[in-house]
Amino acid sequence: MAKKKLNVGLIGYLFMGKAHSNGWRQASRFFDLKRDICMHTICGRNSTAVEKSRKQYGWDHMETDWRKVVANPEIDIIDINTPNDSHAEIAIAAAKAGKHILCEKPLAMNVKQCRQMLQAVKKSKVTHMICHNYRRIPAIAQAKKMIKEGVLGEIRHYHARYSQSWLVDPKAPRLWRMQKQYAGSGAHGDINAHIIDLARFLVGEFDEVSGQMHTFIKQRPLPDNPKKMGRVSVDDAAQFIGRFKNGALANLEATRFATGRKNHIHIEINGAKGSLEFNLEDMNRLKYFDNSVPLDRQGFSDIIVTQQNGVHPYVGQWWPPGHIIGYEHTFVHTIADFINAVAEGKSVQPTFEDGLKNQQVLESVEKSANTRRWVKV
Amino acid sequence: MAKKKLNVGLIGYLFMGKAHSNGWRQASRFFDLKRDICMHTICGRNSTAVEKSRKQYGWDHMETDWRKVVANPEIDIIDINTPNDSHAEIAIAAAKAGKHILCEKPLAMNVKQCRQMLQAVKKSKVTHMICHNYRRIPAIAQAKKMIKEGVLGEIRHYHARYSQSWLVDPKAPRLWRMQKQYAGSGAHGDINAHIIDLARFLVGEFDEVSGQMHTFIKQRPLPDNPKKMGRVSVDDAAQFIGRFKNGALANLEATRFATGRKNHIHIEINGAKGSLEFNLEDMNRLKYFDNSVPLDRQGFSDIIVTQQNGVHPYVGQWWPPGHIIGYEHTFVHTIADFINAVAEGKSVQPTFEDGLKNQQVLESVEKSANTRRWVKV
Amino acid sequence: MAKKKLNVGLIGYLFMGKAHSNGWRQASRFFDLKRDICMHTICGRNSTAVEKSRKQYGWDHMETDWRKVVANPEIDIIDINTPNDSHAEIAIAAAKAGKHILCEKPLAMNVKQCRQMLQAVKKSKVTHMICHNYRRIPAIAQAKKMIKEGVLGEIRHYHARYSQSWLVDPKAPRLWRMQKQYAGSGAHGDINAHIIDLARFLVGEFDEVSGQMHTFIKQRPLPDNPKKMGRVSVDDAAQFIGRFKNGALANLEATRFATGRKNHIHIEINGAKGSLEFNLEDMNRLKYFDNSVPLDRQGFSDIIVTQQNGVHPYVGQWWPPGHIIGYEHTFVHTIADFINAVAEGKSVQPTFEDGLKNQQVLESVEKSANTRRWVKV
Amino acid sequence: MAKKKLNVGLIGYLFMGKAHSNGWRQASRFFDLKRDICMHTICGRNSTAVEKSRKQYGWDHMETDWRKVVANPEIDIIDINTPNDSHAEIAIAAAKAGKHILCEKPLAMNVKQCRQMLQAVKKSKVTHMICHNYRRIPAIAQAKKMIKEGVLGEIRHYHARYSQSWLVDPKAPRLWRMQKQYAGSGAHGDINAHIIDLARFLVGEFDEVSGQMHTFIKQRPLPDNPKKMGRVSVDDAAQFIGRFKNGALANLEATRFATGRKNHIHIEINGAKGSLEFNLEDMNRLKYFDNSVPLDRQGFSDIIVTQQNGVHPYVGQWWPPGHIIGYEHTFVHTIADFINAVAEGKSVQPTFEDGLKNQQVLESVEKSANTRRWVKV
User: Fold this and answer.
1) Which residue in A301, A309, A312 has the most chain D C-beta atoms within 10 A of its own C-beta, making it the best mutation to test that interface?
2) What is the mean pLDDT of chain B?
3) Cβ contacts (< 8 Å) between A319 and chain B: which residues?
4) B120 contacts B96 by C-beta, under 8 angstroms
């Protein structure tokens, strides 16, 4: 029997728009959803480009004014994929219109905006989710399951580095991502936010932090006129040490200047009974060291997280063991869980509250970098 | 402007049916195709199961008699995903009906059938392709490009092992894949066929071979009645050494008894100027050793094959560098190239002739195993 | 022709005594030294144990009072391998006696002692060296060579973690290494000192730091009486972020609580033109990413640093390419260079001045941890 | 108390002479031997070169005629490190003189010689050992222990490749190792012999084989006169498939033409309950897959084989966990076990009988390559 469809309005059509479109298209093909999905409207300011994306990604309608999408009574869900400075306004409007909301990270430009957004969704009682898609990498979901079962024991260390290299070239143009007024921050909000989220997901809440942020290249050619230079007003790299409320030590670093690293996250978590290691560029694997194995056979086990349902999370919906999945599957998993939560009127992690807490950590690090002191989160 | 759609009829709806359905659905979303695709009809013998798959995978119609699909004048393309023993009959009928054909590997049960199929498609002048999807793993396509450019120099060794473990458990049931009359052979035709195809793609034609095939567990429980045992009439493992026409040495092994290996292909190719190494379980990577680098810096380079168009093949259509893709993408690439070939009335590798040549190698190894002598391919 | 031998007196006979003894024994067997070595006297307080070590390691004489060794006019070289709190006294006495000195790290308990030691050796004009043996791992020496040649360009990041796990077990006894009065500090002086030294060797001088130090388990059983507990007065883990004078960012962490890590150092150095990666547990390898390679072939090269003389440093004295060496070889290399420097009356890095500078970084981090502020080095 | 020393005479002073000298020098420094060792005499035909080696490696005497060493009543042990064609003559003479014998591999030029040597040592009742040093890599000894304990269950596959690259360059000179009259065979006897030995050690006896041997470059410059070319009369690569008596399948390949591989052995052993993987270039590690681990945590464990005595074999005599050892340590382990066997009048594996059985496999493969048929070992 046909389930009543949920109509989705997607705001934003670039990199994240492409990834989310794929998520909406594929979710029902691989997961048993409680409601069917209708890819109703895609929205962006450039009508030619949006129409092209509409056809390419398979949306029914296009729109150039996000307010009309939010106002459209047919639409059930608003999916926000725009630059960071517009998240708050769109989300608050969507909440007021009673739409369920999926919003790209970082949730907003600052803690204040995040609070307003959280207030709005709570008031409207809509389902709200921030798209920290890496939580639903099967290997990360498996790590979460293992930690929850206590296999690591008391956690002592969370050591993570998110390293990219796309700004190593001084000729790389100054995009919106390098301007404070649109992006809020640089590597910090863009990619540190991811490993902060994974830290909160896997280890717990941060207690205090000491960090620094740095801009290696302070002027870059403008995209439209490469002969003219524009100021880079965000960080190229941000690093901090800290402490979790449960006593574990934290060490996080994000950089766009790690030559050779494309989209590399290395995480190591050390507990009293075991350790976990993860690398995003080998995202189908999770390495696990178990202190309880006979000593002559102990070593980090290289788990290929591709087993069937009931064994490994999410991945069994795709292919048989050993057949790996890729980056975009994490959005499909996120959207599948989101749809089921909407269908049942339930909450689904990570919520806007997670987005707020993430922003609090981000801001604490920024404050620490500015004041050159430790800051309580 | 809308391009006239090509209507596809898919025969078979299980593992390969799911993978191919995804390919037909996704191809136009990520690749600029010369013709649009209509997922017209999915076909299988069990009407309930096929109808379920139709809905799940997004086909317009369903059918339980493949002959009707082949006879349907609306259908342009027949995609064959059935057990191996029916490939020849369906393909020959489809060719006679003037349909373009994509056929799963192995092409057929024996060389004789392959020849008849090749004859049929040649006579009908339809586009024909065997789905050796691993050729379109970006790392493999990149390897091909490099070899073609001569970066390896004269090739001396092709050393490959395809190892799985799904039959290690003696309680694993006897499926059609373990019966000679349906499958033709076991690990040999199922997975040796893949590394034989990659050998032919990357190195060249085989000259002669000496091999052995072995069945470790000769009786297995029947799937419907696990208390009753049925005979396993195919090989659990097949291995052969040989020689290519260009003088390189070959060493290939396929097994379903490699405990711990899920879907593992390890390939090493050694040439006079360089070497390549590939592992399917890390399929976004290609390792390359270059003899011309200064000696103190020589080492196998771990290339993450995820760069933009014009740099790495296929993968730039998906996501930015460092964002990996998975198993099913290889079917999308295959189908994208197939559609463009059909649109332009061109041939596209690997053709049924490649399927025939693959079968000739498979049969030569079987003959060698039976006669315990070297056999000319 | 026989060269006049240099007589060595070794103070300390435990772990480091064993490693240094091996270095003195092997150096002339694999390296062309400018002077021969005589393993003259080994010294320690427990006469039975020292005599056992004398025989086991091949020293001519034994002694229980280090003052007698230092006073012995036959002795040319004093090699200090005692607990950290006695380094200064022994070294200063040895310098006054005109002995050349090799001293284990950390140089002393604090900056003040280091200064006194440096003053003493400078006044006596003896050759002085601190045994930071990891500088002479061939892969590290190769890294140094490459950085010096400019292959990395401007360096942006030094990211290092030294992780061990020997204190994870709360029943591990409280040794001298866990007592401030003997060891000075814990993981910090013991193993952070190593990656600080490598940072100074490979990247440059530190400018300022912000760090924290932490003791996870504050009481441990006494070695002689496991029923009684003793206080752990040093850090189990120490981590800091910082800045080099050349503008690069630093991130260093040392811990004895990384379950599964035995003696693991992971270092990544990112420069404008390339990157290097090193892991002590794979110490024969150096990974190198070169931005100037054609984009489709870029990747971290896994260099096995085992080539002949003139290609890779040190290692060609041992075995043919591909035949790896181990931990103790780094002491042989250190001692070979030290002997040649003594023979020629030259200085040899790392000197006591390096030991002093290392101590300044260590103390700055401690001060930062105590004051919770950034500290200039 | 001083133990009576065993006097050693070493015949041969080149690569193996250097490695064995180090073994004799180091064994008593790290292992508790039942007898002390005296490095009595080193022997070779070129007196200047031998005298240089004598001093360099620390032997008491030198000699240019091996017969005199064998005849010397002071000598207890003869260690044979000469080219393969002289092993038999020297060993038989040494046996007749009542010397205990350690002999480099391959034992001799052919099965006939091996039989004569075995007969000679049996008749004289001396201790005899063939130096297959890789058996005493701690990771291999650990693998043996695990297999013996049954952790792999019934073994199905032994898949091994020994790959080097030192002959890739056509200008590499024609040494004795490339001439049949001195070397017997090429890659086959030199390096296939090693992985045959490990197969026999870890899996069992071979039943039958089918192989091929190939010479890629048939003429090479003479070492003394590079303008003149000499014929290469041995194989550059040798590969074979086969069957063990216990039913496991074998796949072995040895080549000197694997560009990029210096001294690479990759071995994978698959059993019903688990698998092992080993790579000589990472010789301190053993990878182990255990079928009995909960399915969501299964993966190949990367065991760093460096734990203390009672946990891992041999390696605890050296350094603490995580401190790796290198190539030459395997000779130290071999010699330590040999000395203890001599001291106790016991046998020690691998004996000359192992050398004979190894030669039988080598010859069976050669016969198979010549007759192009399967050959019973």
Assistant:
1) A301
2) 97
3) 15, 19, 326-328
4) yes
pLDDT value at B56 more than 50: yes
Query: Which of B146, B295, B299 lies nearest to residue C311, judging by beta carbons?
Result: B295
Residue D274 contacts B, CB cutoff 8 Å = yes
ipTM over 0.90: yes
Is-contact B361 B209, C-beta < 8 A? yes
- Predicted local distance difference test score (pLDDT) of residue A345: 96
Q: Calculate how close chain B gets to A48, using CA atoms only, in Å.
A: 14
Hey, how many other C-beta atoms are within 10 angstroms of the C-beta on A205?
Answer: 13
Using an 8 Å CB-CB cutoff, list chain A residues near B280.
322
A259: left (phi over 0), alpha (psi -120 to 50) or beta: beta
Confidence of residue D17 (pLDDT cuts 50, 70, 90): very high
CA of B374 vs chain D CAs: smallest distance (Å): 6
Q: Is D175 exposed, middle or buried (0-12, 13-18, 19+ CB in 10 A)?
A: middle
User: What is the structure's pLDDT at D2?
Assistant: 54
Q: What is the pLDDT of residue D4?
A: 82
Interface test with C, best of B147, B289, B301, B302 (most C CBs within 10 A): B301
pLDDT value for C4: 82
- Give me the pLDDT at residue C3, please: 66
Residue spans of alpha helices (H) in chain C: 15-30, 47-57, 66-71, 87-96, 111-124, 138-148, 180-183, 187, 193-202, 329-344, 352-371
User: Residues A232-257: what's their mean pLDDT?
Assistant: 98
Q: Where are chain C's structural domains?
A: 5-134, 138-282+284-325+357-371
Beta-carbon contacts of residue C119 (< 8 Å; ≥ 6 apart)? none
Q: Do A301 and D296 touch (CB under 8 A)?
A: no
Q: What is the mean pLDDT of residues D153-169?
A: 97
pLDDT digits (tens, 9 = 90+) for C101-128: 999 999 999 999 999 999 999 999 999 9
CB of B175 within 8 Å of a chain A CB? The answer is: no
> Does pLDDT of A1 surpass 70?
no
Q: How far is D203 from chain C (nearest CA, A)?
A: 25
Q: Chains meeting C at 3+ CB pairs closer than 8 A?
A: A, B, D
Considering only CA atoms, which of A173, A169, A165 is closest in space to residue A220? A173
pLDDT digits (tens, 9 = 90+) for D29-55: 999 999 999 999 999 999 999 999 999
* Tokens standing for residue B339: 């559609």
Measured CA to CA, the distance from residue A253 to residue A135 in angstroms comes to 18
C248 residue type, one letter: A
B158 vs B225: CA distance, rounded Å: 43
Mean pLDDT of chain A: 97
Closest partner CB to D322 (pick from C21, C263, C321) = C263
Per-residue pLDDT, B1 = 47
User: What does the pLDDT read at residue A3?
Assistant: 66
C322-325: which pairs have CB atoms within 8 A and are 24 or more residues apart?
C322/D164, C322/D261, C322/D262, C322/D263, C322/D264, C322/D280, C322/D281, C323/D262, C323/D263, C323/D326, C323/D327, C323/D328, C324/C284, C324/D281, C324/D283, C324/D324, C324/D326, C324/D327, C325/C138, C325/C284, C325/D326, C325/D327
The pLDDT of residue C318:
97
Please list every residue in chain A whose beta carbon sits closer than 8 Å to the beta carbon of residue C270.
163, 165, 255, 257-261
User: Which residues lie closer than 8 Å to B365 by C-beta, 6 or more apart?
Assistant: B188, B192, B209, B211, B213, B238, B240, B375
* Chains in contact with chain D (at least 3 beta-carbon pairs closer than 8 A): A, B, C
Query: Which CATH number is associated with domain D5-134?
Result: 3.40.50.720
For residue C238, give the amino acid letter.
A
* Architecture of the domain made up of D138-282+284-325+357-371: 2-Layer Sandwich (3.30)
Q: How many angstroms separate the CA atoms of D206 and D200, rounded?
A: 7
